[in-house]
Amino acid sequence: MTICDLLEGYDPAVRPFGQNPSLEKRGPVTVRTSLYIQSISAVSERNMEYVVQFRFQQEWFDERLRFTNQNEFRNFEFINVARDQQLWIPDTFFQNERNGWYHMLDQENRFVKLRSDGKVLYNRRLTLILACNMDLARYPMDVQECLIDFASYAYTDSDIQYVWDRIGIEISDTASGALPNFMISDYQSDRCDSVTNTGTYSCLRVKLTLSRVFSFFLLQLYIPSAMLVGVSWVSYWIDWKSTAARVPLAIVTLLTMITQQHAINSNLPPVSYTKAIDVWIGACVVFIFSSLIEYAVVNYMGILDEHRQMRKITLNRTRLSTMADGSMQINPKTATVSGKGPSEKKRLLRKRRKLQLNLQYEDDENVELTSVQVPGKDFFRQNEPDWTLQDIGDLVYVGQRKRVELVRWCSLLSARGRAERIDIIARLVFPIAFILFNCAYWGIYLSEQERPDL
Fold this sequence. Notes:
Oligomer: single chain
Mean pLDDT: 79
Number of domains: 2
């Protein structure tokens, strides 16, 4: 009966009068507002939006709805308004809203309550998808500031003034539980009045500071990628001739790193600036690619020096054969050797045949040494024979000593030493460079990280 009496002749399209009697229509209506945020979830970096669920409460005075409670039948302070009873309600809209809905289960989550002095309390539960302009330059060590802006759609500030209630913003203790990668580190209330060609509109703003939880990215991204870089360094301890082992190792780690980079960027918007994660992934790709280039250089230098070694071995073999042929010049007509008797001729012929057989044996032995790793120089210095080459006419060949002498020269001219030295240098340079990069990377980004406390 009270509501029916109050709504008789009531026009819900006309706004109430203000509280200042010196102004026309007693000034604008003051709408006191408060929010109780229940949860924040589904923060999307790719779409730059987030989902928030909250209870939205507004209070204002409407003198047309004032009633007295002195009657014996009206001894109550508040009256609940039914859903089919229309009252004037501010046309509040959320400026950065992309989508939203009211909660209707198991009935509409909305109530309107009247107080005897004409104060109207309006409360409604909402879930909104709101835009959030994110700065991803420090991703994934970033801190984002997301907003909730609301204002009147049609009334200027001469008709409606929004102000914060005594407790304007409250956040549930479990609001951060639905955030997988963020935590609510701070929140503030502010104003965002906008001036347009149609007038000035009153606007209120909620600033939510969301800090990204870094432990997830440390375990799922940074540590695995650093391990891939370390795996690529294993090739420096593998023999440079083992192409089937070193090349696939570098290629597999490189492709894995590129795949991981693609998976990360697929969840991020194509921004025009460089992100912190791009610097890390790019550096890891460069280190892995450098290990592949290092093996290409090592392989090229090893093959180049190996060919040079073969040419020197061939030259030594030819020179020694020429020396042996020049020391035994036989006259075919007389079947004598110059300056030698018949017995001496037979002895020299036996020596010549023996020398030729040893030369052939040395040739086969040197060919095998070019494809098998030769021991170090110290081994042959320890077994170096102490003998000198005498006059050609008095050449006496000692097979075993001559064979060791040729092997010693092969080891000294081996091309494998330079390739191995490059690998040894890489074992030190690459880890030190990666450690220095880590010091610079974490020093720059962690020093700029700001995490305000609630």
